[in-house]
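Notes from the 1:1 (GR / supervisor)

We went over the backlog. Supervisor wanted to see one worked example end to end before approving the batch request, so GR pasted a single chain during the call. The sequence is below; no edits were made to it. Supervisor asked that the structure be written out right there so they could see what the output format looks like.
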Amino acid sequence: MLKSVIIVCLFLSSINGYILNKFSQKQKLNVFRYTYGNPFGKKYFDELQKNKTLHEDEIIKPQIIIYRKYPIVSQSFVEKIRQLNSKNITEQNNSILNSEYANSEQDGSYSEEQDVPDPDEPPPLRIIIKKANFLEQLGIRFNDDPDDNNNDASGIFEENEQGRRSYKETQNDKSKNFQVIKDYNVCFDDVGGYKNVKEELLQCVDILKNYNKYAKFNVRIPKGLIFEGPPGTGKTLLSKALAGEAKCNFIPVAGSDFQEKYVGVGSSRIKELFQLAKKNVPCIIFIDEIDAVGRKRSSDGESSSSERDSTLNALLVELDGFKNNTGIFLVSATNRIDLLDSALTRPGRIDKKIFIGLPDKDTRRAILNIHINGKPFDETVQINELVDITEGFTGAQIENLLNEAMLNALRYDREIFTFSDFDLVLNKMLVGWQPNEHEFGEDIVTRIAIHEMGHAIVGLFSKHHSKLTKVTINLSSPQTPGYTEFEKSISNIYIREALFERLTVLLAGRIAEELFYGISVTTGAINDFDQALQLSKKMILDYGMGKNIIYPNESEKYKELIDIEVMNLINTAYKQAEYILKNTKDLVYETSEILKKEKILKIETLKELIERKYNYLSF
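Structure output shown during the call:
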């Protein structure tokens, strides 16, 4: 179809027209063809002299008639040809199925020949259209660049002051699978905290904007950076803010966009992505979850791995191959940087690696101030208290806490939320929620309260353990009807005393049940035992906190020694927890009654009770 249209256009452009001379006496048309000469040349004057000879009394004025053998080109026809030539299959199919052009022909919008003009009017002038320009005006372009896979360039007709129309090609901002975002409303002010990360990114923005400032120092523009860290810490948000701060084009994609069942699709989309970025420089490409496309290459030879490897190879070439992609900056994010291929993460491709960890105190305060804006709250909600409660939470979790607290208040037709709303949502996030409460008897609820107060009292009197915050009985929790909360620690380095006291706290729940019920204990300590066993094994094998620093566990002899060390450590922790609970048995019972009645016991209430009634105990 396309070839036929091109051949017809070439043939029509080579025809300049026909000039017909009509004589009034014989009513006969003498047709002759002229090329690029004067239409009033020798033949014209010969005919004029002949008429004078035959009719001396009257001179017949010759009439020139131009028949057009093709329709006048209109903007809709040009747009139709452009759509037919597009490599966007959807646009091409829609153009073929569309009947607008056919309807326009039936309505008579295009005329096969022009009416005979008035003989009194002067002869019309001939317009010569160059063949190359004629094809371009029709929207037909020949792809001379073998690397150009996008033929979707669009254009518009503009009319100047003289009334002449010119065709102007507009800049590409999308391809078949990707689109350029030019106006992004997110900037660094919309991201709470992370001051050091922003300073690092601001230099990247400055290099993209003011390269001449750095060029004299023989530095090159960094080609890419990667954000790594746990989910919900703001890696994608920082990438959006980087594009908004730089005020340049931004192409967001996901690593899964390059994974298809057809061979060669991944690598072709990588090329399509970078070609679109080249047409819109300076441009930032953001690939979320890059481990889906940048995973380490395998050597097993399987077809699925081979396809993924070819996609990665195409990405490596685009980032640092023979071609120069100046003006393109790659930003990526992943939770597992250890899975990425070393060729991708080397300097020259990924120049910067930035770890986005859990927010610190200042960052949590900034996040809270951003997301609490516009949500009315009463005096029970204190920002400083929320900062301490949300220690160890990600930015996404903090935003979700405030959002759900406001939604919970609106559910009961309250236009301000309270700390009770916040605490309810916090409990749901920590231990889950189910619509129906557990139907426990009073005896089981009492045992649960004693079990939890065993954890709380031992943790309170442990010097190196995390600080106690509150104890809760939540019968709406699917798996954990009671739980004890301690302050979360963002540090990943612990001393032996802290780990040992953690072991005693884990065992204290069962010990408290034994003090009050003897051998009639519940199954509620199953998770505590599992955590205690795993922690004691790590202390002996991984941390070297046993009698020997290293235990080779390949022989049966050393396996037996490891088991003995683990059991001795657990028994020692058991004795220490038992000693604390025997000396605070009355405190455990009284606080368990308060917990059973109120369903929640905060650290302030517990400390007040100890100072008022059990002041002989020091903590």
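Supervisor's comment: The longest strand covers residues 328-334.
Batch request approved.
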